[in-house]
Amino acid sequence: MPKIAYFNGQYGPHHKAMVHIDDRGYQFADGIYEVCLVIGGRYWDMDGHLARMERSLSALRIRMPLGVASLQVVMNEVLRRNRLSDALVYIQVTRGVAPRNHPFPADEVPPALIITARRFDLDQSDAQAATGVRVITAPDIRWGRVDIKSISLLPNVLAKQAGVEAGAAEAWLVRNGKVTEGSSSNAWIVTDDGALVTHPKGHEILSGITRETALACARDLQIKVEERAFSVSEAQQAAEAFVTSATNLVTPVVQIDGVKVGDGAPGRVALRLREAYKARARRISGAQND
Amino acid sequence: MPKIAYFNGQYGPHHKAMVHIDDRGYQFADGIYEVCLVIGGRYWDMDGHLARMERSLSALRIRMPLGVASLQVVMNEVLRRNRLSDALVYIQVTRGVAPRNHPFPADEVPPALIITARRFDLDQSDAQAATGVRVITAPDIRWGRVDIKSISLLPNVLAKQAGVEAGAAEAWLVRNGKVTEGSSSNAWIVTDDGALVTHPKGHEILSGITRETALACARDLQIKVEERAFSVSEAQQAAEAFVTSATNLVTPVVQIDGVKVGDGAPGRVALRLREAYKARARRISGAQND
Q1: Domain ranges in chain A?
Q2: What is the C-alpha to C-alpha distance for residues B155 and B165, in angstroms, rounded to an integer?
Q3: Strand partners, A255
Q4: CATH architecture designation of domain B4-119
Q5: Domain covering A126-284, topology
Q6: Cβ–Cβ gap A155/B139 under 8 Å
Q7: pTM for the whole thing?
Q8: Hey, of A7, A20, A21, which one would you mutate to test binding to chain B, going by the most B CBs within 10 A of its CB?
């Protein structure tokens, strides 16, 4: 069975999923995306992803391509046709197809929607978390509105590639001496007295959905949180470090630019938060779906 | 006759020109482009565009999809099949098609190339230059490597749209109080003593090919040039202002944020430079083609 994708308003084989070269996503990066985690057939943090999708589209003045209910129907159908129960669902919306010209096209041009899905291996993710990952740091040279989850990802690609070439799983981005976030995840540290520290929301970071849920988990666990920027050296000297994202959940960081964090093993607080995150996501997604 | 485009290694009707949704240009803005002007069947500033294309690709570590000679054959064939002699040729190269993942795909993945062409009306451009255009200013929130002519153009789109909504043809981008360039053109002013001023090259501006040729024309005409940043108020009080790009050639600016430049009519120096630019481009393209 070939993988199935949704594109140009229909379902079809993924390998035949084509869009027009005049799609503004292709020539102007004029669009947004979301990646949603599905475990056991249930979406984790679905409401958060859909709300952020609406915020990103609104910031760019792109219409929602479908109502939320219809969108969920299509997402479920893509999962069903691919026979996936543990998956990452990818949603991309662009300003549609129009002859190349910088300004927005006429209002009649409908936004373009693609939805794809691929298998997610939670056991493999747990194994990675048990080992922890290494990160490097790189200058944050992204544009000034990274709170919009746009497909304008070239600087993120370059930073991630630099990380991979250095044997790291992620690159933490540094602006004015402070870590903003990772190239595709939020960055956190744990202080010696057990408080979580992560960059505050604003135009300088993408407000991660997993970040928000992790904050809620920290509240549940009565862990203190400081939403403030931190430097690379503060991170290297921290008790623990970790990243959050839909694909990473909560994953401990054991090395930053070659310097061990703590004793170089995944931190206790990070692993506790990961378990709390999974339990919370299961509980909430179960309540929504039952 | 339908318009013809070159895509996926073949010529075909433009309306059927499709690329795969996993083309990294579509999901990561991981690619570059050039727009080349053709007048009377001859390329203007072709060498400059091809050299910059190679620089942009090199900066992103994307291979040239074709050798320069083959690329020119395809460009000419696209022009021929569209029966165009005055045209804009659009070239886009991306890192190719691979399952979605931030890091570069395997070396075997070939870059993707599209080439399209559309008619260019030089008389209409001359008419616009004779009237002059208005510009607004907007914050320059682009990433830190705009010297790479990447398709990561979302901030440019938003600035241009703001300009259009304000009745202007272009938005000049302002960083740290200084004009860097327009959203799709370089920005220039003429001082009271007749010197040209434009932002110096570097990571903060795209080094325009028309900008370079205009500098050469200024040398020919013995017009003094200062490559330095200028502020919005200096521009509003300047003797003249103008923009350069392959599609604008040299086009006078008569208003900045609603403030008339000079007497509000196209400037003498800008129009002289435009004529010099056209003469020079014709001479050089003629020498190359004859």
Answers
A1: 4-119, 126-284
A2: 15
A3: A134, A260
A4: 2-Layer Sandwich (3.30)
A5: D-amino Acid Aminotransferase; Chain A, domain 2 (3.20.10)
A6: no
A7: 0.96
A8: A21
